[in-house]
Amino acid sequence: MLRGKNRRWIGTEKGSILLMVGVAMVIMLAVSAIAIDLVNLYMARTQAQRAADAAALAGAQAFIITGCTNTGCNPGGIQETAATQQAVAVAAQNNIAGQSAVVDPASDVVFSYPTAQEPQITVTTGRSVETFFAKVFGIQTVNVSAKATAEAYNQAGDNNTTLGATCVKPFLFPNCDPNHLGLPNLNCATSGQGYFFNPDTQSQLLSPGTYPAGVQGMPWSLHSTSGPSQWYLAGFADASTSSAAAIRQHIAQCTPAIYSCGDMLPAANGGSVGGVISGVNALIHADANGLNQGQDSIDTTTGPPFAITGGYNNPNPALRGKVFYDYSESPSVVTVPVYNGSLLPPGGTNVKIQGYMQVFIQDAHLAGTDKTIDSVVLNVSYCGDSSGSNTTVASAGSPIPIRLIRTN
């Protein structure tokens, strides 16, 4: 009888191991769904944030190329159309879980204007991400999104911020506007010239808008002798020891040092130092002096933004022969320091950075005994009153920095 009872008791355990294995597999599957799917979603969320950051920064760059940071950015202006297009295009170049990030231009791009010189863009981007193990529990996809806000920050008049720029080219531009007299600048070596910006009143730009009424798109000839568009070179070192090779290198390559508003730069006369023409040709990727030598070209008849056509030597093969509006894609677009415009004595002196100018260098050539560089003004930025500054905002390749100011 005892053996029979044991057999009946043992018989009741049949299938219990299978049941335990089944329960364990469900638990393991649930853990796998949490571990694998959550890691995948976390990676997708990180990718979405990167896409949103890139899209917001690209949109903020459009504020600069349209010029509204100089003239004042107003709601509904052309900068919003350009910024939206830039944000959508750049977002699509970033992947979220193997798919292109999506930005709805109607609902995912929002603009705000704390001031007319400080436009902001907020971009939301995302994707529907397919799950792996969670499908067993009926969860087929999960929506992943991220948001980022960027701004083009014009610091003029801000006593707490100083603008510093990298990749500054060693051309010293005078704060002397030869085409718009307005308020005469008595510092200028040539009389009858006005200001680009008035440092006494902290005015950002005295002649905003496009050329000929304004300065954007204005042709500007640089040359080595004093005249209506006088220019010299910054040695970025001891001016007396600046060699032709050093000047050429500073022009052709990026100088990583940050030069900030209010800094004193040693000046060197470009004509006597030499290396200017060869340095400019190397910078803009021109095979020889003059136009149509492989460098990019610019069309100022419409815009801003102004259309740039990639030359056959553009570093990006995809842009050769193509029209584009992103100034950062052209080696011909550079940022240079602006000083008060006074005549610089032979042998060099020290000058103070009062602002920056973004220009498109068209070509370099010899005009008689003078070395001439033809350029077009794109943007002008005034430093503001930095006497009480305690923060430096660094910008690369632009006179006005763009920066992420908030991400979620």
Give a summary of the structure in a few sentences.
This protein has 408 residues and is α+β, with helices and mostly antiparallel strands. It has helices at 2-11, 16-65, 68-71, 78-92, 244-252, 270-273, 276-284; strands at 95-96, 99-100, 109-115, 118-130, 141-152, 161-166, 171-174, 219-223, 232-234, 259-260, 264-268, 297-299, 307-309, 323-324, 333-339, 350-352, 355-367, 370-382, 391-396, 402-407. The chain is elongated and about 110 Å long.
Give a verbal description of the structure.
The protein has helices at residues 2-11, 16-65, 68-71, 78-92, 244-252, 270-273, 276-284; strands spanning 95-96, 99-100, 109-115, 118-130, 141-152, 161-166, 171-174, 219-223, 232-234, 259-260, 264-268, 297-299, 307-309, 323-324, 333-339, 350-352, 355-367, 370-382, 391-396, 402-407. It has 408 residues and is an alpha+beta fold. The protein has two domains: 16-152; 161-401, no CATH class. The strands form five sheets. It has an eight-stranded mixed beta sheet with strand order 8-18-17-15-7-9-11-16. A four-stranded antiparallel beta sheet has the order 3-4-5-20, covered by helices on one side. The protein has a three-stranded mixed beta sheet with strand order 10-6-19, with no helix packed on it. Strand 1 and strand 2 form a beta hairpin. Helix 2 runs antiparallel to helix 4 (78-92) and helix 5 (244-252) runs parallel beside helix 7 (276-284). The chain is elongated and about 110 Å long.
